[in-house]
Recover the amino acids of this structure.
């Protein structure tokens, strides 16, 4: 493949990342307008966001293994078709229920895009230096989408209406579909893992009941919440037992014997819970309480996006030269401080002071991403690194879903932001615990076990 064609493949993959990532941020700024038009309560707005992120979290691992089995280009094209169709359905939704259903369709398609696109990039760029540069470009698109999402969403909401935020995906999706058919070669894994439908169902039950209990519990009563949390706990226990019995599980539980890997998962859930809560609460505060337009509210989030884009590469260099501890600790401290400061914000807080707090949050979030991925794969055999990174990506989506669910169920924004400060303290504590000598030793022992071959089932001892 020529250098020019490899770059074109990278561009196509980045287009898919852009539209999927945009939907994580572009919808938030349209929530007040959407809620007014569809007469949606706060819980309805939560489901508008969480239906998307929960479905992504549930299906990322399945999509990756399916692509390895039936072909990455075929899966990628299917994802583009489903995501584009879901976006069109979202723009036509006559009610909240239809919108949530269409968001699920969107996410089913989205789950086939990002992990599969990363596999395509890995197989296209065989030179290690070129691959590193390509992954760097890929990571930069996430920052671009974070910056563009609120601004584009605010502009479209103010000038057209909230439905226009979904129209933008349709031409991009169709163009990416054509370019994929024309230029992206097909590839498969030499030996794809077997599917694990039981494990997949248990993951969906776990995440769905947990989120439902958090979002609907305050209105439905403590009995419903307790029942949901009981089912979620039972699903988690069944998932662990089932996955330990499978030679080729959906989630290899042996990974969690590595302290760095477990720590990365916890930091991903906590950090992205803070991001989900921040994005959800911020747009409601700026538009519903301070009276800003959707575009103005989107522009207010630019400091977060800008500083994240600047700090992210710096964090990556720190990870490469000094390890993951320093950036992880800085991330925990900044997220905790930002959460504590945001809990004191009122309707009369000067806008420059508010934007300064947003910068602190952006530093924390920008510092967090590189050490999560690095720590997740630290010490893992090369053959297992992709699966480990996929678990970290799933943890990010789970965290963002739970952050929105918990924030919306809190009695006040101040209480929700105090929980955000707690997320930062969890990141700090876990970073200190899982980046030392003892933690590295657990990663080495885990890597040794993983290289021995498939896990032994419980019945075999």
């Amino acid at each position: 493949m020529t250098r020019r064609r490899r770059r074109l493949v990278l561009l196509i993959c980045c287009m898919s990342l852009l539209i999927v990532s945009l939907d994580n941020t572009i919808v938030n700024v349209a929530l007040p307008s959407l809620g007014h038009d569809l007469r949606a309560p706060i819980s309805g707005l939560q489901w508008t966001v969480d239906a998307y992120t929960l479905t992504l979290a549930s299906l990322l691992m399945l999509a990756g293994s399916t692509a390895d089995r039936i072909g990455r280009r075929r899966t990628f094209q299917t994802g583009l078709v489903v995501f584009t169709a879901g976006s069109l359905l979202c723009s036509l939704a006559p009610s909240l229920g239809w919108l949530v259903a269409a968001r699920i369709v969107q996410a089913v398609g989205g789950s086939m895009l990002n992990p599969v696109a990363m596999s395509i990039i890995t197989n296209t760029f065989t030179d290690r230096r070129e691959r590193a540069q390509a992954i760097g470009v890929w990571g930069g698109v996430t920052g671009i989408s974070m910056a563009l999402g609120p601004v584009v969403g605010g502009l479209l909401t103010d000038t057209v209406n909230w439905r226009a935020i979904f129209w933008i995906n349709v031409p991009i999706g169709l163009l990416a579909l054509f370019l994929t058919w024309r230029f992206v070669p097909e590839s498969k894994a030499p030996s794809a893992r077997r599917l694990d439908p039981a494990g997949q169902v248990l993951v969906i039950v776990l995440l769905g009941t947990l989120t439902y209990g958090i979002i609907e519990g305050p209105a439905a009563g403590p009995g419903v919440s307790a029942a949901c949390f009981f089912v979620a706990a039972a699903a988690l226990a069944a998932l662990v037992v089932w996955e330990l019995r499978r030679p080729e599980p959906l989630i290899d539980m042996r990974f969690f014997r590595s302290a760095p890997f477990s720590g990365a998962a916890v930091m991903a859930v906590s950090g992205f819970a803070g991001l989900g809560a921040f994005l959800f609460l911020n747009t409601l505060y700026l538009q519903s309480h301070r009276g800003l337009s959707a575009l103005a509210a989107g522009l207010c989030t630019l400091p977060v996006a800008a500083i994240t884009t600047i700090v992210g590469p710096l964090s990556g260099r720190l990870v490469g030269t000094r390890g993951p501890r320093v950036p992880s600790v800085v991330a925990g401290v900044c997220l905790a401080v930002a959460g504590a400061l945001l809990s004191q914000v009122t309707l009369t807080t000067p806008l420059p002071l508010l934007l300064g707090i947003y910068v602190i949050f952006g530093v924390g979030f920008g510092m967090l991403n590189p050490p999560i991925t690095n720590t997740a794969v630290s010490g893992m055999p090369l053959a297992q690194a992709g699966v480990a990174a996929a678990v970290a990506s799933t943890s990010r989506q789970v965290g963002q879903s739970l952050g929105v669910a918990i924030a919306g169920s809190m009695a006040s924004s101040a209480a929700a932001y105090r929980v955000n400060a707690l997320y930062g303290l969890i990141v700090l504590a876990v970073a200190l615990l899982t980046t030392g000598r003892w933690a590295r030793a657990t990663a080495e022992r885990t890597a040794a076990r993983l290289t021995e071959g498939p896990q032994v089932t419980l019945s075999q001892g």
